[in-house]
């Protein structure tokens, strides 16, 4: 079939694109960026056609006319969990999809599948769920064959949800809202994709009854606490981690602050959605798959457990290490600006051959540099921050060599002020090696 797929750069969209290409379908993909994930460049060139269009611009129905020619099925997977700039719920979840659905009716598209979210129903309260529900309801009122699929938490390689819960499961103590009593029903990515593919390919005459809204869920509901314990066992962590219940009322204030941090997956809305629960009827997805969806105990294959364990174990210590090193630079700069007696700092510089105004320029210039290096840790990403780790390594190595030559007695100091540079250098090498770069991030993508 000829399929128009939106959101092909996303987590679900990229996996769906790969599955559809593997089954011989051709794709039409609107693109905001320059890449779409998929199996190979050769397949992309042959069976994927793209055109520039951004949901944030709220394109009208006419903007879709040319792209919808000869299209059999439209699948909309565009979605965001947090608003940022022009990427708003009203634009991406409501206005642009509704215009697309109207265009599908005008173009005579055979079927439209809307990837929504579990919880986008009459009980919805979060802005995320309400915006999804608005587009879902509009689509189901149109005179066109349509299906709304509502995924629960989707677990799969590369997914933000999987990374978050793997990291939580790897913690030595599980600090959970209300002790982790919330009910969830996570689904594995491959099961969700296979169910959507089945809906795309299912003949209209043999569609299962009552299938206009299909929850994509796991076989049964589990508590958040039990889900994390299951992931922890699958990653071969022993023993089990103790659970520290956190008051939900306290977390509401924390969630408001966390929501202001760019890229945070935790805010007031996500806490509210977690408290509400995230469960559904597994019968529809079981019917589509011809089998029960896999449970959380099968999310991590046994051979993959060591790699997943290592990756999840780094997800939370690395940010802590970055913050710690940033604070070392920032505090060093603050101390050098006057908390430590200037006279003693100048006396040390005099032993290095720096005197008078030149020594003061060195002192306060180095203090400013330390402050800048600390702040840049929080602002740079990827390859730029990787270069920052090298610069910090080189500076500390230079300080260490200079002190060794002119102030060797510091190696014998009981507090080990120079000796402590060695673990600092090792930490910087570790951060350099593990820093995400654009090359690494794009290794599994093909350009279109």
What would you say this structure looks like, in words?
With 448 residues, this protein is an alpha/beta fold. Among the domains are: 1-151, Rossmann fold, CATH 3.40.50.720; 318-437, no CATH class. It contains 17 helices and 15 strands. The protein has helices spanning 11-22, 41-47, 89-107, 127-141, 160-170, 189-201, 224-234, 248-258, 268-276, 283-289, 305-315, 317-339, 342-351, 356-379, 382-406, 421-434, 438-441; strands at 2-6, 26-31, 35-37, 48-52, 73-76, 111-115, 145-151, 154-155, 174-177, 183-184, 187-188, 213-216, 222-223, 243-246, 445-447. Strands 4-2-1-5-6-7-12 form a seven-stranded parallel sheet, with helices on both faces. Helix 4 (127-141) links the parallel strand 6 (111-115) and strand 7. Helix 5 crosses helix 11 and helix 12 (317-339) packs antiparallel against helix 14. The longest helix is centred in the C-terminal third of the chain and has 25 residues, at 382-406. The two termini are 20 Å apart. Mean pLDDT is 90; it is low at 34-43 and 438-448.
CATH class of the domain at 1-151 equals: Alpha Beta
- Quick check: average pLDDT? 90
Biggest β-sheet strands, sense, barrel? 7 strands, parallel
**Which residues sit in consecutive blocks of at least 5 with pLDDT less than 50?**
34-43, 438-448
Distance between the termini: 20 Å
DSSP strand content? 5-15%
**CATH topology description of the domain at 1-151:** Rossmann fold
Give the C-alpha Rg: 27 Å
Which strand order does the major sheet show?
Answer: 4-2-1-5-6-7-12
């Amino acid at each position: 079939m000829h399929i128009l797929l939106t959101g092909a750069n996303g987590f679900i969209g990229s996996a769906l694109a790969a599955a559809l290409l593997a089954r011989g379908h051709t794709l039409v993909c609107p693109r905001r960026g320059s890449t779409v994930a998929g199996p190979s460049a050769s397949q992309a060139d042959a069976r994927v056609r793209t055109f520039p269009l951004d949901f944030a611009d709220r394109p009208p129905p006419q903007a879709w006319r040319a792209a919808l020619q000869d299209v059999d099925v439209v699948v909309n997977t565009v979605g965001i969990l947090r608003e940022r700039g022009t990427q708003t719920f009203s634009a991406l979840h409501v206005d642009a999809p509704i215009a697309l659905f109207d265009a599908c009716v005008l173009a005579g598209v055979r079927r439209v599948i809307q990837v929504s979210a579990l919880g986008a129903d009459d009980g919805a309260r979060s802005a995320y769920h309400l915006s999804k529900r608005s587009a879902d309801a509009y689509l189901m009122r149109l005179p066109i064959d349509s299906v709304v699929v509502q995924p629960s938490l989707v677990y799969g390689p590369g997914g933000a949800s999987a990374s978050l819960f793997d990291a939580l499961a790897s913690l030595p103590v599980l600090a959970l809202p209300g002790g982790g009593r919330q009910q969830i029903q996570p689904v594995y990515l491959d099961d969700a994709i296979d169910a959507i593919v089945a809906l795309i390919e299912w003949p209209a005459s043999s569609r299962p009854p009552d299938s206009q809204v299909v929850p994509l869920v796991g076989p049964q509901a589990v508590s958040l606490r039990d889900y994390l314990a299951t992931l922890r066992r699958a990653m071969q962590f022993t023993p089990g981690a103790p659970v520290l219940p956190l008051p939900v009322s306290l977390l509401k204030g924390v969630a408001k602050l966390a929501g202001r941090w760019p890229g945070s997956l935790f805010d007031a809305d996500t806490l509210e959605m977690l408290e509400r629960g995230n469960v559904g009827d597994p019968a529809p997805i079981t019917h589509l798959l011809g089998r029960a969806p896999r449970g959380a105990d099968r999310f991590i294959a046994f051979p993959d457990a060591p790699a997943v364990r290592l990756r999840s174990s780094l997800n939370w210590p690395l940010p802590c290490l970055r913050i710690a090193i940033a604070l070392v630079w920032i505090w060093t700069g603050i101390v050098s600006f006057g908390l430590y007696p200037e006279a003693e700092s100048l006396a040390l510089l005099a032993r290095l051959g720096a005197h008078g105004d030149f020594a003061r320029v060195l002192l306060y210039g180095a203090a400013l540099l330390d402050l800048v290096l600390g702040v840049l840790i929080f602002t740079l990403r990827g390859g730029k921050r990787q270069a920052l780790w090298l610069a910090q390594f080189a500076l500390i190595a230079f300080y260490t060599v200079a002190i060794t030559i002119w102030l060797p007695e510091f190696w014998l100091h009981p507090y080990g002020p120079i000796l402590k540079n060695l673990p600092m250098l090792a930490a910087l090498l570790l951060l350099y090696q593990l820093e995400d770069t654009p090359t690494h991030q794009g290794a599994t993508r093909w350009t279109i």
